[in-house]
């Protein structure tokens, strides 16, 4: 008798038992960790769902949003002292003069309105020029708050730097052994940022080199309707740069005159008082 004739036919019931056994063994095996993201994606930044009509849809995962936000913060290079500061944290009680408090309230309303209309300003490249003759009036603090608002609430890529830092970074590119990027790469990053914030505009020692480089940056942004926000201790007409720079700055910014009162000394005095009181309590 052949082997085929000796085989016992497998019934349908036995086939089901075999399938059940295979399924049970498979379920006991540890499943590979394909979903390590705590927010629900497979580390690709998107969560896939199927709509009622059967269409596959991708939703951006929270992890991807956090990564994008982290990259923006790194690129922005906002000073550590001002990271995370928002407009809601900017209080007028740090000013001692009544007119300063009144002016800050008006400025805050104007800046909030500007941010609400940021998309239209992106189309025209209209920025802000925040200035006061007095140093320490809160201009840098306000500019950093604007930067944080733009990144967090308006999906905007921001670059923050003092004018003297920009000049120094350009000079650093001349040393091929120590530079982190070429001059053209640095200038490109400054020219293409959605919003460039130049702090302490006009504070550096002016030279032909400074005028030429700032003109190249500002003119490129001017031509491409890129928003530039400035803080300065100079009014626009008193800026120490060439007229071709000043005229472009004037055309592409709204002027915000900050209170002519230094809050830096007041904050320092307050910190000293708090320190002394703390020592007395101990």
From TrEMBL:
This is Chromosomal replication initiator protein DnaA ATPAse domain-containing protein. It comes from Anaerocolumna chitinilytica. InterPro entries: DnaA_dom (IPR013317), P-loop_NTPase (IPR027417). Residues 127-250 form the Chromosomal replication initiator protein DnaA ATPAse domain. GO terms for biological process: DNA replication. It comes from the Bacteria.
């Amino acid at each position: 008798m052949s082997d085929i004739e000796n085989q016992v036919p497998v019934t349908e019931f036995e086939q089901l038992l075999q399938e059940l056994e295979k399924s049970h063994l498979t379920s006991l095996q540890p499943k590979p960790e394909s979903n390590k993201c705590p927010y629900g994606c497979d580390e690709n930044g998107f969560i896939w769902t199927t709509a009622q009509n059967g269409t596959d849809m991708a939703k951006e995962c929270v992890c991807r949003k956090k990564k994008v936000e982290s990259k923006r913060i790194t690129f922005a290079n906002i000073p550590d002292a001002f990271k995370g500061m928002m407009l809601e944290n900017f209080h007028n009680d740090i000013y001692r003069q009544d007119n300063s408090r009144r002016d800050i309230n008006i400025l805050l309303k104007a800046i909030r309105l500007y941010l609400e209309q940021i998309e239209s300003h992106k189309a025209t490249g209209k920025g802000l020029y925040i200035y006061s003759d007095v140093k320490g009036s809160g201009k840098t603090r306000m500019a950093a708050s604007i930067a944080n608002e733009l990144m967090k609430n308006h999906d905007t890529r921001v670059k923050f730097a003092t004018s003297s830092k920009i000049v120094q970074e350009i000079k650093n590119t001349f040393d091929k052994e120590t530079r982190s990027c070429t001059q053209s790469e640095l200038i490109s990053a400054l020219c293409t940022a959605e919003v460039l914030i130049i702090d302490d505009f006009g504070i550096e020692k002016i030279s032909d080199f400074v005028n030429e480089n700032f003109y190249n940056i500002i003119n490129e942004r001017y031509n491409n309707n890129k928003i530039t926000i400035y803080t300065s201790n100079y009014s626009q007409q008193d800026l120490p740069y060439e007229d071709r720079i000043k005229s472009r700055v004037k055309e592409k910014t709204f002027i915000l005159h900050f209170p002519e009162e230094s809050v830096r000394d007041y904050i320092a005095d307050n910190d000293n008082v708090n320190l002394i009181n703390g020592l007395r309590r101990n």
